[in-house]
What does this fold into?
Amino acid sequence: MVHIVTDSTADLPKKVADAHRISVMPLNLHFGEEILKDGEDIWAEEFYHRLSFEATLPTTSQPSPGEFVDLYRRIAKKGDTVISIHLSEKLSGTINSSRLAGEMLKGEIEVIAVDSSFVTMPLALVVLEAAKAAQEGRAVEEILSRIEWTQRNMAFYFTVGSLEHLHRTGRIGKATTLLGNLLSIRPILSIKDGLIVPVEKFRGNSNRLDHRFLDLIRADLGADPAEVFIIHANAPDEEKRLEETCRERIPGVKVFSAIAGPIVGVHTGPGAFGLAALPAR
Amino acid sequence: MSLDYIDGPKLKKLLEAGVETLFEHKEEVDDLNVFPVPDGDTGTNMYLTFQAALREALKAQDDVKSILEAAAQGALMGARGNSGVITSQFFRGFAKGVGNAKKLGIPEIADGIAGASALAYQAVRKPVEGTMLTVVREAGEKAKALVGKKIKLEEFLMTVFEHAEVVLQKTPEMLPTLKQTGVVDAGGKGILFFFQGVIEGYKGKTLKRKLAEEKSVIKSASSYTEGEISLVDFAFQYCTEFILQGKNLKVEEIKKDLSPHGDSMLVVGDENTVKIHIHTNNPGLILDYAVRLGDMSEIQISNMVEQSQQRLEKIRQYNNEEELPQEVGLVAVVPGEGLHKIYKSLGVAEVIEGGQTMNPSTEDLYKAVTKVPAKQVIILPNNGNVIMTAGQVGELTEIPVAVVPSKTIPQGISALMAFNPHEGLRENLEAMTRAIGNVVTGEVTFAVRDSQYNGFEIKEGDIMGLKDGDIVCVGKDSTQVLIDLLKQMVEKEDSFITIYYGHDINESEAQATLAKVQDLFPEADVELYYGGQPLYSYILSVE
It folds into this structure.
């Protein structure tokens, strides 16, 4: 039997994960002396609330190899295969813990650790493709080739309220700056080859920004998407407006949205939002 | 008294001593973190991992094998961060290297360190030299070389430790990122603190604290590597915390009494001991209330506004410190203080005052270029009459200088939007020159003399509207001319209009003009900025 595992940075709503039989390994959120498991001890809403008054700044850390061993043993029987899909290795060492766990389980459970090269919503889309294929009873090779297709065809763009957070936690190159920003310029960012990269600087109001996102996605896909996936770091107004823009512009489009959890939120800061889409197959 | 080997009970003590020393120094290790390695706090993470190992080790039977295996298992479960994961492999490898030995003498320890190094190298996909991996590998090699020499265990440990220290000091030479920041590897330093503690423990140092039992109390010094900071207005400014001891304390009642005085309240405990945490604007009131109920201890009051500002300041400083000399630097010719600031905010290193009335000389431009800390420079002349002058600068300088032929302020801004500090001179020159075409420029100014142009009869003092340098409308009122001009410039309903108002327009006038423009073009996105340019009431762009 094949099991699909990801980590909490996929920001998969619990219902969706359960429905697709996806097991989620939490990363750790540190608030000073307090260590919380993402999605178990703390949730997005609570996290953003705490962020607004906590004097201590949170940090994040990857799960330990031992925690992965326990998880794999809990879900898989001897002889089973686990496809463990994680956030980009260039952003976190999570997949290394997964790999080490896999080595320790050799001969017992086959663990295939997959570097999605993404994080948050695009990671969720990769994982969902894999889970659907697994639920259809596809062979491992076929699941892996679906994962690969999804990675290759992903269109994902986002912006952040401020680049300071990504700078501080080292998730974006130092050279990506917008200095004083007197002209209210916003960065449009993407994830390429596992790294967060600047795409362009954008000037104008939020509505124009929504359209720019959709222009970029259409250029990538060669057509308007049939489904779009919105992710936001506690930016419900942006989420709502972006959803409306999508519906106005693309008749009949299906819109899904999710809130970025604590781990992603630590690095982007609140107010980040963006959207992902895949081409029709 | 000194045994020349380490047995089970002794091993537990040494582990404890090592973890204590690491605990004492973990903030030093945190501060060695090299930006922008995406690994939060190396010292804290290593300490947490070691602590998890120690906790399990102390629970184990008193034999060496059980202790080492328990420690390895503890580290594996408790590993935090990359450094923690590698540490957990050291523990596993050490246990594996030692094997079934009942006591740890020189040969066993040497096997252990070598085993630790071997397993850790396997665990890391692309081992990087100049890190804790190198330190432990070298320590292992040194230890192996000492096996069979006639030395005491203490001397052996010291020799290995000293060698590891020397290797650590060399790590900046092996890793460019360390060299840039001028620090040694944080993980390596952490391992050595542990090792140092072990040696001190072997020599008989007594422990100050019971580490395994204690809840990890972490006060990280390097807050700039940590997460979110938001400039919230704190409704309650003081974080007030203390422990209250008394008799018949009623948690629910305390909660009820305190809750009107703040938020984020936490009251936990039993009838003898209660821990109270609250954010309030009047800590005195809270303490006054509590002192009537019992004895207070561990009282901590901190000003959250101040903390938040300090942290923000630290982050800002940190972000500024990292500015490296750029590949490509920028120089621009710009009129007016408002536009100067805008250009500076877009990354222009040197702004030269000038424009329509005052064209800078080649020398002015040359001087500005020499002040730019970059290997190559791009000039934005922002005026048709400056382009040629700017073109000559490259003949005077040693570094390559290129000119983007921007004729207006908005063209210059469009070019700046396309500037990418990651790219070289040629790529930027192309992208920036192309971007000039994305914008239509409008200017509102007055006639200095009577004249005829484009069929317009123009009197001295008349207000003129120029579209990309051509007079397209004439009038007596600058706002009216601006609107006439915009009507000729705006082609799409949902255009993006930016207006920079000049020195002779005050803010309320400008705001009134903005309101009129918004009325007239309800679908457009209109932004207004203070440009402060002389002679030109308005400079505008339509995209």
